[in-house]
Every structure is written in C-alpha cells, then in structure tokens.
Design a protein that fits this description.
The protein has helices at 20-36, 85-92, 110-122, and strands at 2-4, 10-12, 50-51, 63-67, 73-75, 78-80, 100-104, 128-130, 133-134. It is α/β, with parallel strands linked by helices. It folds into two domains: 2-39, no CATH class; 50-134, 2-Layer Sandwich (Nucleotidyltransferase, domain 5), CATH 3.30.420.270. The strands form three sheets. Strands 6-5-4-7-8 form a five-stranded mixed beta sheet, covered by helices on one side. The protein has a two-stranded antiparallel ribbon with strand order 1-2. It has a two-stranded parallel ribbon with strand order 3-9. Strand 7, helix 3 and strand 8 form a beta-alpha-beta unit. The termini are far apart.
C-alpha cells in the first residue's frame, strides 16, 4: 500500500511490527505473576506452631494433609473426610516410603492430630513429617 506525502511524493508503508507494546505487556504480566506466585501456596491457611529447629522443604509434589482450627481435614487444598485419608494416600502416593506432611493449626486438639496420624499409619505410611514454622525470639 502506498501513501502520498504532502509534497506529492509516493511513500510505501512500513511493514515492520512494532514490538514495544508487546514487550510492555509482557513485562507487566511477568511482574504480576512474580507477585502473586508466592501467594498461591498449596493447602489452607493454618497458624503453625513455632519450633527452634525447622527444616525447609519444597512443598511441590508432596502429600500435604492439613487440619484447620475448626478441625476440618484438607488433602492439599481439598476438604476430605477423616475416613477417606487412607484411600487418597494409597491412590496418590508412589509408595509407602513417601513422606506425608501434616500441617495442623496450633490450636487444634492433640486428639485430632493423633487420630489423623493413626489413619495415615493405618494406610501403611510411616514417614510422617509435622510441619512447623521457625521460632521468633521476642524483641527486647
């Protein structure tokens, strides 16, 4: 396609793609994903008890069972019944040597935690890890 300039000359149109707006949009999307990705943690929000010795683990591709303050049991982020724990573990685990991570709110009664551990062991899993958060020294 040709255009005529005010001086009467014929000029051809530019056939190049302007990538500046595309780069701007991609950078904005990158920043949005970088900000929101840490907020997308697997599971539910529980107030973990604090301990002095905590090991960092990567929760991806791990089996995480959580107990909320109200006593609801979650498998990942899905609420399940107490009796369904063994079936879900046998279905999703690669073997009985897999680690099962148990997250429980600090206000949950000990009886609930022990009952869930009993269900996990009843399914044949003995590697149960209790998830805690690091202890923070009080400010003086």
């Amino acid at each position: 396609m040709a255009f005529t300039t005010p001086q009467g000359r014929t000029a051809t149109s530019l056939s190049e793609i302007n990538v500046t707006p595309l780069v701007d949009v991609m950078l904005v999307l990158l920043i949005i994903f970088m900000v929101t990705a840490p907020m997308l943690q697997t599971g539910i929000d529980v107030q973990l008890p604090e301990t002095r010795y905590v090991k960092d683990v990567n929760p991806e591709e791990r089996i995480i069972i959580s107990i909320s303050r109200e006593g609801y049991i979650y498998y990942g982020s899905e609420e399940i019944k107490y009796s369904a724990i063994p079936d879900r573990l046998k279905k999703d685990a690669k073997g009985t040597k897999d680690f099962i991570f148990l997250r429980a709110d600090k206000d949950v009664k000990w009886n609930s935690i022990v009952s869930v551990i009993d269900q996990i062991r009843g399914a044949g899993f003995s590697e149960i890890k209790l998830v805690t958060k690091p202890f923070k020294e009080p400010q003086k």
